[in-house]
Amino acid sequence: MNWHTINYALGSLLSLVVGLFVLYRGQSRKLTRRTWFFLCVFVSAWHAGKFLIAISPSEVFAFRAIHFMYVGAILIPPCYLHFILSLLDSERRYRYLIAASYLFGFLELYLLFGGWFLKGVRPDAILNYYEIPTQAYWIYFGNYLIVPTLAMVILTRALKKTDGVVRKNQFKYVAYSSLIGFICGVTTFAPLVTDRVPQILAPLVYFYTLPITYAVARYRLMDIDVIIRKSLIYALLLLILLVPCYALVIWGQLTAFGEISYQFSLSTLLLFILVGFYFPKVRFLTEDALERVLFKKRLDFRETLLRSSKDMVSIIEIKALSDNLVRTIGKSLGIEKVSLLLNNVANGSYHLEASVGLDLDQTDRVLLPKEGPLVQLLQRRREPIVREELEWVPVGPETPQTIATMGKLGAELSLPILSKEKLIGVLNLGHKEDKTIYSNEDLELLSTLTNQAAIAIENARLYENLKQSQDTLRRADRLSSLGLLTAGLAHEIRNPLVAIRTFTQLLPERYDDAAFREGFQGLALKEVDRICGLINDLLSFARPSKPNVVAENVNDVVAEIARILEAQAKEKNVVIARDFGDNLPKAWIDREQMKQVFMNLILNAIQAMQEGGSISISTRAISRNGAELSGEFVQVEIRDTGIGIPEENVQHIFDPFYTSKDEGSGLGLAVSHQIVQEHGGFVTVESTVGKGTAFFVHVPVGKPVRPAANGRAQVNEANLSH
User: Fold this and answer.
1) What is d(CA 546, CA 605) in angstroms, rounded to the nearest whole number?
2) Which of 130, 186, 593, 626 lies 20 to 30 Å from 553, alpha-carbon distance?
């Protein structure tokens, strides 16, 4: 068997396989998959016929094989047109054209088997046998050119019109591959004109089915322009390398044997091509396998550092991030001393954030000024500095000071941590335990790690700034609430003081009246206790407290806030009614934070009723299943009879600084919503204009899923529904 015979057999089998694959596993519409399958069947039949011709033992057998081959060849153009139009979803628009192409194809089959196309066969040096055409044969040849060309024109127009990136890329695959396939197919007609043109490309017709199969079977395709560009570059490189080698092989044959063996030369060329394609892949696989066997420890260190660089971006605390970085590097590389210095934004100096192996008594004194020689050198060079290299090759007058600074830090290697062209940190590494040097591979890997660390550090600092902003907002909201409370409490405190003052003035005159003294004493004690209770509640709300998430009775928290706000409610002619559920499970909350939530919601309810009304506060236990946040919750409902919230404003009420009142900061509901979220709970709202509003606060019964860095409850996911 020669080159042609083998490829014809391979092409027949492969075309059938890819057609079946698309039919059963493709992601395109059913009609497109079916038309592509039948097209592949006809391409397979054409290749099979060519293979049978190549192995034919006689002219009779070859003549029959040629008829079988032409069955596939005649039906390829109409089936290809049908496939292109189905791919473009245009088969209905061009249904008459499709029908005409198939009818003409069946007419060609009639002419073929009626003996109008072929006279017989003749021997061929390469193909074994080749057909002898009649004058009517050119009808088939014209149809072979016209129908695919028409399909390509329609496809090209669709390619220019489509705006979808994915569809455009898919059309490119089909267009480029089809062009290659039909050019290869045209070369099969060469023996009709001359036998001097070799049919090298004819056996490769099936190659065009592979890219189209990829385009039809998948939606997400590699960019074909990138593939073509890389293929051309790779082919050019192979050509530059292979031509001199092949010329050397030819010269060697002439020198050694005095003649050229074309089979040996072709085999050598194919061997060169295979080596050029597969050597890089085999090389990397072999290197990886040998490293795993011979240098397992080094490979483990590399994998550990790469894994650590990916994990760092998920750590949002500066301290935890710094400790993780120095511990990971120290353990994986076996380094005795590791230290990380980060810049202080306020003064620009670099302070020690984390270390391993340094003398702890001296760590507090580790501080590098921004004008220091080591900092300036790292900022200027933007690459790792090896202390021993500095000793050999000084880089300036500040070199001795730089070496001395690295010596104090126990650093043999200092790496810059850069973000936006600015030095934000310095990573110092001491000697390895085995006293080996830092290789170029080590330096490259550590530089990659410091780049990832820079991103993680910036993220952690942004998170810290965000938390500080949130704390500032909460303090501002608390102060705003205190201002409203003091006005109401002043009235509540003044009334009992007036009563006590009146009795005190009357006491000298009626001192001998035992009943008066006893009544005065009881009333005075009662009023003083009331004042003390109000002041204690106010101080409890106003006094900053440390975060403390514990199991609390929600009823007690709500009752305390309602008691404080009763005076404010009375001034507005608002009645506060309580309906607390019995035997509620305890919820894991920060008591002071939740007091701020209920304070904001009740104050908002009071302010929504300028002409008086009522507030109903109720608590209950609920279960929630099948939602984003599910489980056991304590629900606190705060319902008022105020003016209500317009539907278009409901979605904005939790936005910071959003307010519909003439006075107010717009922070109260935003802060309240965030606090509830951080407890793993959620808030829902119901409101009807003119009838009132109800807020439903849900806090989970179980422990928080994870604590935040500041010790307060942390949210897993936020939820807000209206």
Assistant:
1) 29
2) 626
CA-to-CA distance for 653 and 660, rounded, in angstroms? 9
Enumerate the β-bridge partners of residue 619.
Answer: 636
Among 469, 378, 393, 387, residue whose Cα is nearest residue 429: 387
3-state secondary structure of 106: helix
Choose among 317, 313, 339, 314: nearest CA to 326.
339
In a domain, 580, yes or no: yes
Judge whether 653 and 669 are in contact, CB under 8 Å. Answer: yes
CB-based burial label for 679 (10 Å; 0-12, 13-18, 19+) = buried
Q: Are the C-beta atoms of 8 and 54 separated by less than 8 Å?
A: yes
CATH number reported for the structural domain that contains residue 74 in this entry: 1.20.1070.10
| Cα–Cα distance for residue pair 62/632, rounded to 1 Å | 82
From residue 586, how far is each of 278, 599, 621 by CA, in Å? 67, 20, 10
Residues 188 and 66 in one domain: yes
pTM confidence score: 0.45
Given 221, 252, 280, the domain boundary residue is 221
567 and 667 co-located in one domain: yes
Partner residues linked to 244 by β-bridges: none
Per-10-residue mean pLDDT of the chain, 722 residues long, equals 75 88 80 90 91 90 92 93 91 92 93 89 82 87 91 90 78 83 80 67 67 65 55 68 78 80 74 71 61 50 62 74 83 83 81 80 66 86 85 80 86 88 88 77 79 82 69 55 55 66 69 68 69 61 59 89 82 88 87 84 84 90 70 89 81 62 57 79 86 89 53 34 34
d(CA 502, CA 176) in angstroms, rounded, equals 103
431-456 in b/e burial notation, b at 16+ Cβ within 10 A? bbeeeeebeeebeebbeebbebbbeb
Q: Give which of 721, 677, 656, 671 is closest to 695, Cα–Cα.
A: 721
The helix, strand and coil proportions of the chain, stated in percent and rounded to the nearest 5, come to: 60, 15, 25
Distance separating alpha carbons of residues 613 and 575, to the nearest angstrom: 6
Three-state SS for 316? coil
In a domain, 436, yes or no: no
Q: Residues 632, 633, 634, 640: is their CA dihedral positive or negative? A: negative
Rounded to 5 degrees, φ, ψ at 485 are: -70, -40
CATH (domain of 672) = 3.30.565.10
Q: How many domains does the chain have?
A: 3
d(CA 37, CA 45): 12
187 and 74 co-located in one domain: yes
Does 76 map to a domain? yes
Cβ pair 112, 74 in contact under 8 A: yes
Token digits for 201?
A: 């490309």
Cβ atoms of 199 and 188 closer than 8 Å: yes
Lookup: tokens for 78: 């109409």
Q: Give DSSP secondary structure letters for 481-502.
A: HHHHHHHHHHHHHHHHHHHHHH
Give the integer Cα–Cα distance in Å for 269 and 238: 11
For 148, other C-beta atoms within 10 Å of its C-beta total: 21
> Do 554 and 630 have their domain in common?
yes
Length of the chain in terms of residues written: 722
CA 35 to chain centre: 37
Say how far apart CA 52 and CA 606 lie, in whole Å: 95
Closest CA to 429 of 445, 462, 406: 406
